[in-house]
Write a structure and sequence with these properties.
Number of strands: 6
Largest sheet: 4 strands, mixed
Strand order of the largest sheet: 4-3-5-6
Shape: globular
Number of domains: 1
Order of helices and strands: EEEHEHHEE
Number of helices: 3
CATH superfamily: Glutaredoxin
Radius of gyration: 14 Å
CATH architecture: 3-Layer(aba) Sandwich
Length: 142
Amino acid sequence: MSIYDLSFTDNSGNEIKLESFKGKNILIVNTASNCGYTTQYSDLQKVYSDSVVVLGFPCNQFGNQEPGNNQDIKEFCTTNYGVKFPLSQKVEVNGPNAHPIYKHCKESTGITNIGWNFEKFLISSDGSITHYLSSHQVLDIV
């Protein structure tokens, strides 16, 4: 299976197919609005461009730091950080209900579990996962 075979539902209810991003670098990141790393939204927005697609996946699995509903999350990100990149509906990244994109990324890299909010997978323009970044790692490789 390729990453391009997968899709997600954005926070407005639209299906987004990853195949629509073929030929671009993709940065997949699990996000939260009440985390010490939440300010990374600003850096993620700066990285988002024609050649790098940032996809945010709000998740409440770490310290209940994403308690809002999809509309609350979108409003928070837009108002406080000017986020324009796609955000999914709230997902799980670990466990039996982990989103298929996260299952694929973890299986492809040998990562057993996502450890915290704002951990990132960088997917190259050919669809291969090239980097896994923990929450505290900077985005200078993008």
